[in-house]
Design a protein that fits this description.
The chain is an all-alpha fold and about 400 residues long. Helices cover about 75% and strands about 0% of the residues. The chain starts with a helix and ends with a helix.
């Protein structure tokens, strides 16, 4: 019954029909319609009347609908294993039958699987729209789908609202333990605690995630978790351990890692070397992995920074000229700008950018970047003999920690 109630609410919301207007057409009160949409069991004749008013001729649970149900289960499983190609293949197939799905008892599940694909693809515009609809249907989910909903709801806030990201993961872990759901929640919660500089709890939940990923044979998620472990080592000043883990990820050939993830791991390696002032190693690792990892502008900007520190400005200039800002990657864009301003010896412009960058890095909980930026900012003010400003910005990061 709740599936039909969900179908009513989702269809009304997607069509932009006001509850009061629909209730009036069906000769019921708006409050009664709200109860129906929230899962209240009523006379089937009433729900049939509402469905007719919405222009829905409900599709019964026939073989075709059962097939779609299995496909959505496959999509949810593929998302858990971060098989983006499979997720896209299934969502494309299902989208061709959206009209059928939206007039079936699978409407709510279809909206959830659509949301999962949007979260994985970082389709922010569509994701926000679908999220708003699903938030109004929370009471209509089965316990299993509710847990999956909270998992991806939290992930949709990962880069914008750390508080909601954490809150959703705690809700997932407060529910029944489920394979390929609880493990991902532990990993995400580890990220939340790392942003809060609570490395003890970050390590604890990341270790739980790694054990579960290994049991589930979810090797790609395990790679993500190991990469995160390397970042934790870097934040604790254990650079050798961080580099060892990151290099082992790129050196292994058993698990196929998506290009963007290999690029992220190489970025972590190069940034770790810069933090450790091992500038020659930056060039060495770029040469070592250039054949297996397609170097992007962020890698080249990090290389250019290493050349600056090695007093080779001509080579830095040649590299940075080919780099363009990426609006989807604020860290890369701002780092490219830092290199440009440093080479141009634009001290005032550099200070302004570093102040903005420090604020952003602290907001999103990127401690390594925040430390690097703060060090540059303090050096800049010290060069101008402005020690009070240097202390002020150093204290900003100290208060955060």
């Amino acid at each position: 019954m709740k599936q039909v109630n969900a179908l009513i609410r989702i269809t009304r919301l997607k069509k932009g029909i006001k509850a009061a207007a629909l209730a009036h057409e069906c000769n019921i009160t708006a409050s009664y319609l709200s109860q129906i949409e929230s899962g209240k069991e009523v006379d089937p004749a009433i729900t049939s009347k509402i469905l007719r008013q919405l222009g829905i001729e409900i599709k019964k649970n026939n073989r075709q609908v059962q097939k779609y149900d299995r496909m959505m289960d496959d999509l949810i499983n593929a998302a858990a294993y971060y098989d983006q190609a499979r997720v896209q293949e299934l969502i494309d197939q299902l989208a061709k039958s959206e009209a059928v799905l939206m007039e079936s008892e699978l409407a709510l599940k279809w909206m959830l699987t659509t949301f999962i694909a949007q979260v994985l693809n970082k389709n922010n515009g569509a994701m926000k729209e679908t999220r708003e609809i699903l938030k109004k249907c929370v009471k209509l989910f089965t316990p299993e789908l509710l847990q999956i909903y909270f998992l991806y709801l939290g992930m949709s806030f990962a880069n914008s609202r750390s508080d909601l990201f954490k809150e959703s993961m705690l809700k997932v872990l407060g529910m029944k333990e489920r394979e390929s759901v609880t493990s991902i929640a532990h990993y995400n919660l580890a990220i939340c605690y790392a942003r809060e500089n609570n490395h003890f709890l970050a390590d604890k939940h990341n270790l739980k995630a790694q054990r579960a990923f290994l049991d589930e044979q979810n090797y790609l998620r395990l790679i993500f978790s190991k990469s995160f472990e390397a970042v934790l080592y870097s934040e604790n000043g254990m650079m050798e351990e961080a580099l060892e883990i990151s290099c082992s990820i790129l050196d292994q050939t058993i698990i196929k890692i998506p290009l963007y993830q290999r690029q992220q791991v190489l970025h972590n390696i190069l940034f770790t070397c810069i933090l450790a002032k091992r500038y020659e190693d930056v060039q060495r690792y770029c040469a070592q992995y250039s054949s297996s990892v397609e170097l992007n502008d962020f890698h080249r900007a990090l290389q250019a920074w290493a050349f600056i520190k090695l007093n080779r400005p001509e080579e830095a200039e040649a590299l940075i000229q080919s780099c363009t800002p990426d609006k989807n990657d604020p860290f890369a864009s701002q780092f490219i700008a830092i290199v440009h301003l440093t080479l141009a010896q634009d001290e005032a412009g550099l200070q302004r950018l570093l102040i903005q960058f420090q604020k952003f890095a602290l907001k999103v909980g990127n401690d390594l970047s925040a430390k690097f930026i703060t060090d540059l900012l303090c050096e800049s003010y010290i060069r101008k003999n402005n020690y009070s400003k240097a202390v002020y910005y150093q204290n900003r990061i100290a208060r955060k920690n």
